[in-house]
Amino acid sequence: MKSYVIDTVVDPRTQKFISAGEAIKLGIIDPSTATYHNIVTGESITFEEAIRVSELNNVNIFAFL
Length: 65
Description:
By secondary structure, this protein is of the alpha+beta class. It contains two helices and six strands, in the order ββαβββαβ.
């Protein structure tokens, strides 16, 4: 199991970084499923993919065995 500590998230409406808390309130990220939701296009991707495409910033990933 992995645990993520996310600092900032790209708001797909503005392309600006917002806090993780604000992103949760807006439905952009879902910590329970580790998913980033582009609320403009409707596309959903995993946190790992979002990190690769720079939608999530300053992320620390912890793996728990």
